[in-house]
Amino acid sequence: MKTRPQLQPINAQDSENRDREIVMSGDTGEAIKGACNKGKLNANPSCFSANTANERSDRGFRSPEFDVSESALNAIVVIENVGNTAESGTLSVTVADGTAVSGEDYVPTAGLRVSFLSGEASKEVNIPILDDDVIESDESIQLSLQLLGPSRPSARIGSPASATVKIIDNDKPRK
């Protein structure tokens, strides 16, 4: 099993604006041989590029809460693909009533799927909002993510795995 090289400072002194010299080492602790085993972090950026072949792909909501006005056409929810973005995959997004009611406060949304192609870091999902004339408290929709199909071991649901859409009421009391 491959692991990432360890970066160890060899002259880490507590002074600002000071160059740091590092040595890269593997599992055994021995320095990795080659032109890039020692140097300044900005000296040769290609020496410090990450190998993402064994890195996980975490897919989760950008935020645990998304706010939308009741007068908006859609709640826009962002799902992020963090880590190994080279890996494609599909997620199921479950949309369920919180205090908001499907068919009254938002359009029923079943079978919602989000597919990430290789290299994609985020996707937007639109949940249609229904505006009414009822003066009410803000309402909520609950969202959760699940991996679909045979997933690779490096793909997983990240954090947050669930989110809330808060529908902010736009109706004012009549005078």
Automatic annotation (TrEMBL):
Residues 51-146 form the Calx-beta domain. InterPro entries: CaCA (IPR051171), CalX-like_sf (IPR038081), Calx_beta (IPR003644). SUPFAM superfamilies: CalX-like. The keyword Calcium applies. It comes from the Eukaryota. One of its GO terms (cellular component) is membrane. It holds the Pfam family Calx-beta. GO terms for biological process: cell communication; metal ion transport. Keywords: Calcium, Ion transport, Repeat, Signal, Transport. Residues 1-14 have a biased composition (Polar residues). Residues 1-21, 151-175 are annotated as: Disordered. The keyword Phosphoprotein does not apply. This is Calx-beta domain-containing protein. It comes from Pocillopora damicornis (Cauliflower coral).
